[in-house]
UniProtKB/TrEMBL annotation:
Origin species: Effrenium voratum
GO molecular function, one term: cysteine-type endopeptidase activity
Alphabetized Pfam families for the sequence: Peptidase_C14 (PF00656)
Residues covered by the Peptidase C14 caspase domain: 16-320
InterPro entries: Caspase-like_dom_sf (IPR029030), Metacaspase (IPR050452), Pept_C14_caspase (IPR011600)
A GO CC term attached to the entry: cytoplasm
GO BP terms, alphabetized: proteolysis
Domain of life the protein comes from: Eukaryota
Family: Belongs to the peptidase C14B family.
Protein name as it appears in the record: Peptidase C14 caspase domain-containing protein
Length: 339
């Protein structure tokens, strides 16, 4: 692959904005968590300040908490809400999904794992695997539409089957923050290579990394593929919607449920417990300062490391992202000369 790229900037979107927030505590089960519904309630005012209205037309909320009389995050309700989120999506729309709950892994045919989101009734209805989330959400987004996903769950880096992953070594982050053109890299076998990287071998990952341009989406032209094909040439020619996911950890890690989020500088008005990723993200965003993608990722990682959490938040994307560009929820990436 060549290394020459046009300059990439963000274009503000002016279409509708929709958000889906899911917080599952698994009340009165052996899988019970304590801060997931609180995470949703902490995110809502932050999103409202960023232009995502909290009315029933623009936002759906699924919660599992004491006293909640709205829809719960069962598998059927989650699928219905995801359908609502992407229904009739058009160029110019900005969509957002925030999920706080358990994440899982299921063995994949041929080896490896599928990452999953875990509905309230997963023991009877099953989990939501990455392949199904890709099929029902990512695949359906049109070119010019942006979906931001915040996944505060275990094993979440691969939960949407997206092809670009910013491994984010300290050196790469420093380069990005210094203004160098460090991009998310397309790695066509990133899942298996990433597992090897996590186990201590990086040669497979970095030998396969290649930067691709905007037109990387051919694999669904005939509707027969599931996920990204390994031949980059087959991924050219079809532009689809842009998806940026902030995940709580690597695919091989767990995300912490924090008993007291006051250490993150957050008020306990919605309860003291919360997810570590959501707490770090809310803390960073509510400062009201413009930050780049690289700076936001670095701030979250430093905050979690300082508090003793081993999890390493990730950026995963459907398209190339310039990490030196300002972080925003309502922008798409355009190359120089595009309208």
């Amino acid at each position: 692959m060549g290394s020459q790229h046009k300059a990439v900037t963000q274009k503000a979107l002016t279409g509708r904005r929709r958000s889906l927030l899911i917080g599952c505590n698994y009340l009165n089960t052996q899988n019970e968590l304590h801060g997931c519904a609180n995470d949703v309630r902490r995110m809502m005012p932050v999103l409202e300040k960023l232009g995502f209205a909290s009315d029933g037309v623009s936002q759906k909320v699924l919660l599992d908490e004491q006293g909640w009389d709205g829809p719960k995050p069962t598998k059927a309700n989650m699928l219905e809400a995801l359908e609502w989120l992407v229904a009739d999506a058009q160029a110019g729309d900005a969509l957002l999904l925030h999920y706080s709950g358990h994440g899982g892994r299921e063995p994949a045919e041929g080896g490896g794992y599928h990452e999953t989101l875990v509905p309230l009734d997963f023991e009877t209805a099953g989990m939501l695997p990455d392949t199904e989330l890709f099929e029902k959400v990512v695949k359906r987004l049109p070119h010019g539409c942006r979906l931001t996903c915040i996944l505060d769950s275990c094993h979440s880096a691969g939960a949407l089957d997206l092809p670009y992953i910013f491994v984010g070594t300290e050196d790469q982050l420093q380069k990005a923050m210094a203004g160098e053109a460090v991009r998310m890299a397309m790695e066509v076998r990133w899942k298996s290579d990433f597992e090897k990287w996590a186990a201590g071998s990086s040669k497979e990952l970095f030998s396969d990394v290649g930067s691709l341009g905007k037109n990387v989406w051919q694999m669904y032209q005939d509707g027969s593929a599931t996920g990204f094909v390994t031949d980059a040439a087959q991924n050219e020619g079809l532009a689809m919607g842009e998806v940026v996911a902030i995940s709580g950890c690597r695919s091989d890690q767990t995300s912490a449920d924090v008993a007291d989020v006051s250490s993150f500088g957050l008020a306990a008005t919605t309860g003291s417990a919360g997810g570590a990723l959501t707490s770090a993200l809310v803390e960073a965003l509510q400062r009201g300062q413009e930050v780049t993608y690289a700076e936001l990722l670095e701030q979250m990682r430093q905050e979690l490391a300082k508090k003793g959490f081993a999890q390493v938040p990730q950026f995963v994307s459907s398209l190339l992202v310039e990490l030196k560009q300002p972080f925003r929820l309502d922008g798409i990436w355009v190359e120089e000369g595009e309208q």
